[in-house]
Design goal:
The complex is a heterodimer. By secondary structure, chain A is an alpha+beta fold. Chain A has 17 helices and 21 strands. Chain A has two domains: about 120 residues, Glutaredoxin (3-Layer(aba) Sandwich), CATH 3.40.30.10; about 350 residues, no CATH class. In chain A, helix 5 crosses helix 7, helix 9 crosses helix 12 and helix 14 crosses helix 16. The chains are: A alpha+beta, B alpha/beta.
């Protein structure tokens, strides 16, 4: 039997117990006394309380990590390496028992019967985080190469200088922050989420978490980012072409389902704008992952003529409350249950407004919104581009009260966005752009804007007031371009948190 | 603090070496690759005439869509049957 005692220098209860502990040790009791404090503090404490021996140092807090006490002084009894008993804080009679069990005596004459200890150094949040990071590294849960920045360097500037940001400041991805982020996924951090173009970078959960930290995400946002990476990594999303194109589109994320609330996304006022951390950071985390893991850099692999502010990151949540005209986009597209949450990735531009202040019946409003949708890319470009319509609540109400389904609205928008071939053929109206005349035999023939009704994605979000909706133009779509993809958030969550 | 440790956010891939194909051989056959952007064919038609006038055999090839990388089979076919390739990159 042997005893281990953990103390620290700034603990009055340790001060009080230490003379009795060291006296016992000097009388031959099988007790090791270790301090969680540094060498200088430990020596000063020994001098202050009049010890004739100085406690050992618990180097790197290795023993403290293993014993994991809440409080010190902590005295632990071992039998052949296995812990059989412990006392945390000062409990005179219990400590006497422990020493007797170890075949020794503790001279506890002057000690109080009971006095609480102080928090173990390992309970300091910063120390606990460092220990968790060290353990994650030792267990292979984090494997990323270390970028060592000088102590006098500004890590934000250092990351910018190394070309690892989108131009905005990032949160430095310390091991402690990344390990804390990883707590929000059930999966092995080395699981591969996607292989990202253009260079085939392997996006493990760890790598996504590093970029999510940099983007400013809070932990609960990680499963959304993971689902987004999964979605854009699928071959049919054509991410390689999307990031390399001259077109300004990027991945637009629509998050639909109850996890929106847990992640802190807000689908009401200013849903597509600023002010909500989870909304902004999830989209940015995806784009940073694409840049850093896939390797697509603006002006190098990314050849966008103009780009758009939305390419910094574009994510928003659907408002699936009682006022919603129909179920969620992810639920509708991918068959998710209402209690599940899906992330739908769509290759899209920045959003723009479609206003209609007068329509009170669904037919009129659908026709009006269809005019807005027709403008995507060019009114004369037909069949090649999809679009997303984000219905605002005041527009959504019209369809809800009329009992329209999403499919019904898609069909009405599709039908209303046809246009006579003669109006959009090359040269019509003095405009060179347009349909190839070889394809136009009847100028009155109605030409569809979209390849089919389901190529118009409909989401629902926004504040209560405003007879507005938003149009998000797509990139080249379908089998010749990018097909929207939906991934389930729960697949990336910790069991029990979903 | 002497230093700050951060985790590398990249895939940590070493840059893939992409050596140029051997040069110096006679060019007898050139592939003209149409990526399916509008009017790419107009440009390639002109190039084909110019190359034929030089006595060079031309193979017209095309990607299925400009939005995606050329399929591996197409790349192999061009590599095996042609000495060089010219791509009409964009509009």
């Amino acid at each position: 039997m042997e005893l281990v005692a953990l103390v620290k220098h700034d603990c009055p209860t340790c001060d009080q117990l230490l003379p009795a502990l060291t006296a016992a040790a000097q009388r031959g009791a099988p007790v090791r006394i270790l301090s969680q404090s540094g060498e200088r503090e430990t020596s000063e404490q020994a001098a202050r309380v009049g010890l004739t021996m100085i406690p050992e140092l618990d180097v790197d807090l290795a023993l403290s990590e293993r014993l994991d006490p809440d409080a010190v002084p902590a005295v632990v009894l071992f039998d052949g390496g296995a812990e059989t008993d412990r006392v945390e804080g000062l409990q005179r009679d219990r400590l006497i028992e422990l020493f007797e069990a170890a075949g020794a005596t503790l001279d506890a004459g002057d000690l109080p019967a009971m006095r609480p200890g102080c928090a173990s150094v390992t309970r300091d949040p910063a120390v606990a985080a460092a220990i968790a990071a060290r353990r994650a590294r030792a267990e292979g849960r984090i494997r990323s190469r270390i970028l060592r920045i000088g102590g006098l360097e500004d890590p934000v500037e250092a990351l910018y200088d190394r070309g690892l940001t989108d131009g905005l400041p990032v949160v430095p991805p310390t091991p402690e922050r990344v390990v804390a982020m990883l707590e929000h996924s059930a999966r092995d951090p080395q699981d591969v989420v996607a292989v990202l173009p253009p260079y085939g970078g392997i996006a493990t959960i760890e790598k996504v978490a590093v970029n999510a930290v940099m983007a400013g995400c809070a932990g609960p946002e990680l499963p959304i980012v993971l689902a987004a990476v999964e979605a854009v990594g699928r071959e049919d999303f054509a991410l390689h072409g999307l990031l390399a194109t001259t077109h300004p589109a990027g991945p637009v994320l629509v998050v639909s389902g109850p996890y929106v609330e847990q992640a802190g996304m807000r689908a009401e006022v200013n849903a597509l704008g600023q002010g909500c951390r989870a909304t902004l950071c999830t989209g940015r985390a995806l784009q940073l992952t694409v840049r850093n893991v896939g390797g697509g850099r603006p002006g190098v692999e990314d050849r966008a003529t103009h780009g758009s502010p939305a390419k910094v990151g574009f994510s928003f949540a659907e408002r699936l409350d009682a006022g919603a005209p129909f179920g969620g986009l992810a639920q509708d597209r991918a068959g998710l249950a209402a209690e599940e949450t899906g992330v739908t990735a769509f290759a899209g531009e920045a959003p723009r407004l479609v206003a209609d202040q007068l329509a009170r019946d669904p037919e009129s409003l659908a026709a009006s919104l269809a005019e807005g949708l027709e403008q995507v890319s060019s009114i004369r470009f037909r069949l090649a581009f999809d679009a997303m319509l984000v219905l605002g609540p005041e527009h959504g109400r019209v369809f809800r009260e009329a009992g329209w389904s999403r499919a019904q609205l898609q069909l009405a928008l599709h039908q209303a966005s046809h246009r006579p071939a003669g109006e959009i053929v090359r040269g019509a109206g003095g405009i060179a752009e347009g349909l190839d005349p070889a394809w136009v035999t009847d100028p009155a023939f109605p030409v569809a804007k979209f390849a089919s009704p389901d190529r118009i994605l409909i989401a629902y979000a926004g504040g209560d007031a405003g007879l507005f909706s938003m149009v998000i133009g797509g990139w080249v779509s379908g089998e010749i371009g990018s097909a929207p993809q939906t991934a389930r958030v729960e697949d990336w969550l910790r069991p029990g948190r979903s | 603090m002497d230093f700050i440790d951060l985790l590398d956010p990249t895939a940590e891939r070493d840059p893939v070496g992409r050596p140029l194909a051997p040069r110096g051989g006679e060019i007898r056959r050139i592939a003209l690759l149409d990526i399916h952007k509008p009017r790419g064919d107009v440009f390639l038609d002109e190039l084909e005439l110019l190359l034929q006038a030089e006595g060079i055999d031309v193979a017209r090839t095309a990607k299925p869509t400009f939005t995606k990388p050329a399929p591996a089979d197409l790349r192999r076919e061009i590599a095996e049957s042609c000495d060089a390739v010219i791509e009409a990159l964009a509009d």
